[in-house]
Amino acid sequence: QHLRAEMPAHLLQEEMSSSYTTTTTITAPPSKILQNGGGKLEKALLHLEEDIRPEMKDDIYDPTYKDKEGPRPKTVYVWRNIILMSLLHLGALYGITLVPTCKLYTWLWGVFYYFMSALGITAGAHRLWSHRTYKARLPLRVFLVIANTMAFQNDIFEWARDHRVHHKFSETDADPHNSRRGFFFSHVGWLLVRKHPAVKEKGGLLDLSDLKAEKMLMFQRKYYKPAILLMCFILPTLVPWYFWGETFKHSLFVATFLRYTIVLNATWLVNSAAHLYGYRPYDKNIGPRENILVSLGAAGEGFHNYHHSFPYDYATSEYRWHINFTTFFIDCMAALGLAYDRKKVSKAAILARVKRTGDGSYKSG
Ligand SMILES: [Zn+2]
Ligand SMILES: [Zn+2]
């Protein structure tokens, strides 16, 4: 499956669309190629990689943006968040000591809640709403909003806004969790201090009209505080206590504090570890890396060099079900007719990118 360098763009286009028919394969609209006047292959490939969702552009990396010169603005600590986050983590540590004396059902309930909230982030806030990598019908969207509320990581609108600006201005001051500021800052520190002015400036210029137009997202945003109290704290604590007679202490510290803390840290590892440790087979010029361990914890979100290279791929990975529970879930939803129009980058476009910008660690599988 090697790409012939002399192949004219329109032939390449044909070959790519005919060889991948299972899901929407990402190719440029033919008109785009024709506009190039049959231009250079390189140019056509750039378009193939970047022109697949005409309605979404604001999660594409902008390498022209550079940090402003001059002294860094003073760090302003948000003490309320620092105290709450510390208490939560202390509660989770105490929860660990209670795990051995938990009822089996409480443990299973915690695991179930972990997977539901993870999907609310990965399949919902991330792949559906931040990147629009597939489309979902109403029942699935209702489920994802509820699951996302269980995860309590800011409402979907805010999450998607922070995430689009993270992709577009990656590793600069306009990136909310800029990994150049170190592991701790990109992991959790960014939630404990006021945002850098560049994040506000650039985030405010993003096109978020698609999110604002979705009534369900605005509904979640409006009732977010009572909703997270119920879905992230009250419900997961009351269920084990009421239904199988778990002690209130075990319910609160294991099913709620420990479970919530694990989901948070698994998600944060995508911003910290997957931006610092791993190979960069698709693009050596950007920070994000391929990290299997992060993928394990974050339901398939650790193939991060791939994901930042091709943010429009619904699998956030070159592969589908390889350490990727979220892709498996979306495919199940598609089999039920609840998800459709899943965008997948073609093998040819991936190989061309590997050849052009990879770090040489790519293993063809
Ligand atoms: Zn990232
Ligand atoms: Zn992303």
Automatic annotation (TrEMBL):
Protein name (database record): stearoyl-CoA 9-desaturase
The UniProt keyword set, sorted, is: Endoplasmic reticulum, Fatty acid biosynthesis, Fatty acid metabolism, Iron, Lipid biosynthesis, Lipid metabolism, Membrane, Metal-binding, Oxidoreductase, Transmembrane, Transmembrane helix
Q: So what family is this one in?
A: Belongs to the fatty acid desaturase type 1 family.
**Gene Ontology CC terms, in alphabetical order:** endoplasmic reticulum membrane; nucleolus
Encoding gene (name): SCD
What free text does the record give on domains?
The histidine box domains are involved in binding the catalytic metal ions.
Q: How does it sit in the membrane?
A: Multi-pass membrane protein
Which top EC class applies here? oxidoreductase
Cofactor(s) for this UniProt protein: Fe(2+)
Per its record, the protein catalyses:
octadecanoyl-CoA + 2 Fe(II)-[cytochrome b5] + O2 + 2 H(+) = (9Z)-octadecenoyl-CoA + 2 Fe(III)-[cytochrome b5] + 2 H2O
The answer on whether this UniProt entry bears the keyword Oxidoreductase reads yes
UniProt entry tagged with the keyword Endoplasmic reticulum: yes
Query: EC annotation?
Result: 1.14.19.1
* BP GO terms, sorted: monounsaturated fatty acid biosynthetic process; response to fatty acid; unsaturated fatty acid biosynthetic process
Residue spans crossing the bilayer: 78-99, 111-129, 223-244, 250-270
**What does the UniProt entry say about where the protein is found?**
Endoplasmic reticulum membrane
Please report the organism this UniProt entry assigns to the protein.
Answer: Loxodonta africana
